[in-house]
Each structure stands twice: as C-alpha cells, then as structure tokens.
Amino acid sequence: PELSEEPPAEMVKMTKSKTFQAYLPNCHRTYSCIHCRAHLANHDELISKAMQFFFFMQSFQGSQGRAYLFNSVVNVGCGPAEERVLLTGLHAVADIYCENCKTTLGWKYEHAFESSQKYKEGKFIIELAHMIKDNGWE
Hints:
Elements: E1 12-14, E2 20-22, E3 30-33, E4 39-42, H1 48-52, E5 61-62, E6 65-70, E7 76-86, E8 89-98, E9 104-112, E10 124-127, E11 131-134
Antiparallel strand pairs: 1-2, 3-4, 3-11, 5-6, 6-10, 7-8, 8-9, 9-10
Organism: Cochlearius cochlearius (Boat-billed heron)
Keywords: Metal-binding, Zinc
Protein name: Protein yippee-like
C-alpha cells in the first residue's frame, strides 16, 4: 500500500484554486478573513485583550485602525522582514497576507529592539478591518 502525505480531511479542504486551506475546529470561536472567509485564528490564540491591562492598557494599531495580537495564525503567508518605526518603537516586521485571497492582513513581529517590546516577537497582528468573527459568537 502507498503512504499518503495528505493531511486529515477535517483539517484541510481543497479550494477551487487548488490550494490547501486549514480549518479550525467548529467548536471554538474563530476569526476569519473578511474577504474570503478563510480561517485565520482561534480565539484562544488572542493575546492582546488579556494583556492590554498588564501592558498599561496598550491598544494595538494597524495601518488601517485597531488590530489584535495573536500567538499563532493559520492560512497566512509571510513576506520579507523589514525595519519599521511603529508607535511602540523600532521593530523588524514582516507583512502577512491571506494565503487564499492574498489580502494583506497585518504583520508578524520578527524582532523588537526595545526590551519592553520583546513579548511581541514571533506574534502576529491582524487588523480588525480584515477579520470577521465566526463560530459561536453572540
């Protein structure tokens, strides 16, 4: 018998463009791309809400308004890192985009130059303008 390299059917779906798309479990609240509805993140991966009080009520801002900070995301591609001066100082960031529709969603923090911002390294910013809440929000 041949060994299959395909992921389990409940985790991915073949789309019309013949790319694979990860699906998060339906039992969890999720965030999806507002443009194509590809899953982006599980609510459990959201860290900005819980950490805002601890970090002096810091609100995350994207280039198009409010944004959320996530530990991990799915169905997202990453561009090259570049240094940018953001509201919280100099960071090396890489733009992230929806793998399904190619819309730029936000960025990934690759490196923080200030010690107070190190907690952001490896985390992802997604702008609210590009997300929609799915599965169990009321």
